[in-house]
Amino acid sequence: MSDLLTLLELGGPLVALGGGAAWARTRHPALYWNTLGLPLSVLRLLTSYGSVMDSCGLTVAPSRLRVLATYATTRREIRPVPPRRGLIRPTTTGLRLRLRLAPGQEPADVAASAERLRHAWGVHAVHVTPVKPGVVELRLVGYDVLAQVRMPKPTAPDPLRVPVALREDALPFVRDYLTIPHQLTLGATLSGKSMYLRNLITGLAPQPVALAGIDCKRGVELAPFAPRLSALATDPDEAAELLPVLVTEMENRYDLIKQRQGIAPSTPDEDITSDIWGLPESQRPVPIVLFVDEVAELFLTVTRKDEERRDEMVTQLIRLAQLGRAAGIYLEVCGQRFGAELGKGATMLRAQLSGRVCHRVNDEASAKMALGDIAPEAVDAACSIAPRAPRPRRRR
């Protein structure tokens, strides 16, 4: 009887601890990682670093000088040399450490072994990022951060920069209009494209920027934001009236820039500008972001008159995409497909949209329309997104 009580006293807490850990790992992975997963992964990394690098083929033969020095001092044979490891920096979602590559190695060698490193160190994913020549950063993600999306704490907002989604490496995806002025976002129905657009508008709403929208689905996506939008077109006829206004505004802003360029030779270099951001703040017009939802609706025609209207709207969109950046006018174009089959000017407009976001698509051709010309290696990843994959949630 006493032996049974002793077993219960010792085994009961262990069973409860194991059951609690299993429950936390399933229901609250962030809690499990910060309490148990993090120290266990650090321990695995420290104790197996050399052997894991060797088994992954990431070691090189030591230099002759090192071999002679080691043999002269210790009389033992030196092992292959792994990349030099930097400090391990824990995060709330994983670990970060930098590796100084051995001579003859390149970042692609480490990236090719990312899946092996993931299993060896018991983490959810390993991402490799080059930092500078000869140095890469390993970002180890402890759990699936996309299962329960938690955006990082917001910082002071930068002009026209919006953290709109979470990446699989636990870093925020930031939409920066000053770096990438125009973007094309493609995705099938229920892929999260509309929610991504709403998050983007919500992030831009508090900033000093004018927002305009073209939503040819009778405004069902952008109508809730109508009080914040400066203009909203809900059908092709209204879009045909809005686009010329934006083109005229762009031309007026170029006239303002040209007036600023008519300067005296004694004017300092910092006062010379080729876009609105070089203008004095008192003269600088407000940036404009134009959202176009279901862009294919602007290309569809029924009659000859519709074709003329379509050609005019497409020409105006192309002009805004080509010249709008310097005038502070930016495009955010969304749709399910956007290829040459839409009609005249489709591929020319797509070529001007340098930023690309591709959600789940229905076929490989749609993924190639979005990513094939700038990141062919990402086409397979877009096609592999499952229909039940977590979609972004509305920002509050």
Query: What is the spatial order of strands in the main beta sheet?
Result: 10-9-11-12-8-13
Task: Give the proportion of residues in helices.
Answer: 40-55%
User: Could you say which structural class the secondary elements and strand pairing correspond to?
Assistant: alpha/beta
* Overall domain count: 2
Terminal Cα separation, in Å?
59 Å
- Which sequence of SSEs, written as H and E, runs from N to C? HHHEEEHHEEEEEHEEHEHHEHEHH
Total number of strands:
13
Largest sheet: 6 strands, parallel
CATH topology of the largest domain: the name is Rossmann fold
| Number of continuous helical runs | 12
Report on this model:
The chain folds into 2 domains: 19-141, Threonyl-tRNA Synthetase, Chain A, domain 2, CATH 3.30.980; 161-383, P-loop containing nucleotide triphosphate hydrolases (Rossmann fold, 3-Layer(aba) Sandwich), CATH 3.40.50.300. 40% of the residues lie in helices and 17% in strands. It has helices at 2-27, 29-55, 64-74, 107-112, 114-121, 193-204, 236-261, 296-299, 304-323, 346-352, 364-371, 379-383; strands at 84-85, 89-90, 94-100, 125-132, 135-141, 161-166, 172-176, 183-186, 210-215, 231-233, 288-293, 329-335, 355-358. The strands form 3 sheets. The chain has a 6-stranded parallel beta sheet, sandwiched between helices. Strands 1, 2, 3, 4 and 5 form a 5-stranded antiparallel beta sheet that branches. Strands 6-7 form a two-stranded antiparallel ribbon. A hairpin with a 3-residue loop joins strand 2 and strand 3. 28% of the residues are buried.
